[in-house]
Each structure stands twice: as structure tokens, then as C-alpha cells.
TrEMBL record:
CDD domains noted in UniProt: cyt_b5_reduct_like (cd06183)
Family, as annotated: Belongs to the flavoprotein pyridine nucleotide cytochrome reductase family.
Names of required cofactors: FAD
Protein name: FAD-binding FR-type domain-containing protein
Phylogenetic placement of the source organism: Eukaryota, Metazoa, Ecdysozoa, Arthropoda, Hexapoda
Domain FAD-binding FR-type: 60-161
Length: 296
């Protein structure tokens, strides 16, 4: 929520027409403002004190970020590092994003949602898949250091509390791994969290796998395991600490991954294409898993 920093009980500021990019975004800034206003009125009626939020990001207003680094991480993916404009950066403020949340990136006339894989007080890093015919991808292929990309957010209702589950099983397809990685890293980085994580991803071939070094680093921890299914595996591949399997991530492999797991203490996270998400959800629910979250 973006509110007036000088008044802890201030009403959410109404967006202007200039704040809207007119790209049919979902969610639209005016829809977000309506929900924030309803929440404000509810708290006001219940006499709940509305505290100042020191997040640089705003859910209904774009902020300008500068491109400071672009590097290739695999055949189809790049890592994009953005930095917030310094002239509006003040002490006591920073970027606040819960692992698993996404933001909206606006470049020229195109807006797309992306999940940050990491962030600091004033920088955000994204894993972005490039598509040969994608409009946003074409813009990014020609982007230069110092160019401006606008961001608003964060969005997403996924919340995780440490040690609330014994096991987290993550099923991802392609770029869905960008959602799973920051969640897994936040658990591994917390020495008080003893939750075990198994990240299971699907890719077409070895050359498309992004974040190889990052996944290998996580795999050195006792409570993280990574298995990648490659549908077009040509040759034997050995990635340190990562289990590579030939073939698609299908019903049989999902069943094997969940074998001997306790349904009541296992959290299932799913992120991929709509068809992938629907299939995995159907399979795990048929196995009586009740704690399932899908990232659309």
C-alpha cells in the first residue's frame, strides 16, 4: 500500500489518468485503488491504526528503474538487474517483496508480470525468458544500460511461515522456476527453518536450464533437493548436486516424487503453463494432498 509518509492514517491517494498505462493490465491501478480504499475504510470503522509502509514500490503507481545489468544465463533466459532512481530514494525506505510475489514491468507500450528472483533496498533482479516473436522480448533484446523500465507492485497472496510444513514440493515448468527459486532460497537462508524442499522442474533441453549455479549452491544445503526433467535429453548430462532425468514431467514422475510423503504436512507449489498447472493440480489432489498453491 502506498500512503502519505507524513500521515500514518492518511487515505490512499487516488491515481490519475497519467498513472494508468492503458494496456489493459490485470490488475489495473484503479481496481487496486478501489481495494485499498475499501481496506482503509474497514480499518477506519474498526478503529485500526494504519501504519506507515516504507516500501518504495507502489501497487497502483509506476516507479522508474534504471537498467544496470543484462546478462545471458542460458539459451533462452537473461538476468535483468534494475536500480531505483536515486533522486527519490530516502533513508528508511526500501524495496519490500515477499518471496513468490510478482510485479508489473512496463516498457514502451507493453506491460508484463514478472517475479523477482532477488532484491536489495534499491535493486531488483529478474529472470526473464526471451521469446523469438514476443513483443516484450524484442524490446529487451535491444535494451541498453541506463534505459528506464517502470515497475509497480508487488502482487500475490502467497504467504509462508517457517516450519509450518515438514516438506515443500515445488513443481515448475520453464520460467515457472523464477517463482520457486526465491521461495526456496528464503527457506534455506533461514537457519531456524527445518522445512525440506524438493524443487522439480521441467525443461525441453539442457541448454534452456537457467540458474544452474544458483540451484547447485542451494543443493549444497541439507534441506534442499533439485530434480530436473528434460524432455529432449540427447546425451548424458552431469550437473553437480542436481538430479537430471530424461523425459517429461508426467503423472508417473509426480507420483514418484510424492511417494511416502505425509499429505497433511506437505505443501505443494505449482507454476507453469495453464495446462501444466491444471494437470499437476488434478494429480496431486487425487493423491489427497490438501495444501496446494498455484501461481498463475
Amino acid at each position: 500500500m502506498c500512503i502519505d509518509n507524513n500521515n500514518k492514517n492518511s487515505r490512499p491517494v487516488t491515481p490519475t489518468e497519467e498513472d494508468c498505462c492503458h494496456s489493459a493490465c490485470d490488475p489495473c491501478i484503479f481496481d487496486i485503488h478501489k481495494k485499498l480504499l475499501e481496506e482503509y475504510e474497514r480499518k477506519k470503522k474498526q478503529n485500526i491504526k494504519i501504519w506507515n509502509v516504507q516500501n518504495i514500490l507502489c501497487t497502483y503507481k509506476y516507479k522508474d528503474f534504471i537498467v544496470v545489468d543484462v546478462k545471458k544465463t542460458s539459451e533462452s533466459y537473461i538476468l535483468l538487474l534494475l536500480k531505483y532512481q536515486e533522486n527519490d530514494f530516502r533513508s528508511g525506505r526500501g524495496i519490500l517483496i515477499t518471496p513468490g510475489q510478482h510485479v508489473m514491468l512496463h516498457l514502451h507500450d507493453t506491460t508484463k508480470p514478472f517475479t523477482p528472483i532477488s532484491f536489495t533496498d534499491n535493486t531488483i533482479e529478474f529472470l526473464i525468458r526471451l521469446y523469438s516473436n514476443g513483443k516484450f522480448s524484442m524490446y529487451l533484446k535491444n535494451i541498453k544500460l541506463g534505459d528506464i523500465i517502470r515497475i509497480r507492485g508487488p502482487y500475490g497472496n502467497f504467504k509462508y511461515e517457517k516450519n509450518s510444513f515438514q516438506t515443500i514440493i515445488m513443481f515448475s515448468m520453464g520460467s515457472g522456476i523464477a517463482v520457486m527459486y526465491p521461495i526456496a532460497k528464503s527457506v534455506v537462508d533461514n537457519e531456524l527453518d527445518e522445512t525440506k524442499i524438493h524443487l522439480i522442474g521441467g525443461f525441453q533441453d539442457i541448454s534452456q536450464i537457467p540458474l544452474k549455479k544458483e540451484l547447485q549452491t542451494l543443493s549444497d544445503y541439507w534441506n534442499f533437493k533439485c530434480t530436473l526433467h528434460i524432455s529432449q535429453l540427447q546425451d548424458t548430462c552431469n550437473l553437480h548436486a542436481i538430479n537430471i532425468k530424461s523425459g517429461r514431467l508426467d503423472k508417473k514422475s509426480v507420483s514418484e516424487a510424492l511417494e511416502n510423503k505425509v499429505t497433511s504436512t506437505t505443501l505443494i507449489l505449482i507454476c507453469g503453463t495453464h495446462q501444466f498447472n491444471s494437470s499437476i493440480e488434478q494429480w496431486v489432489k487425487c493423491m489427497n494432498y490438501m495444501h496446494v498453491h498455484i501461481f498463475e
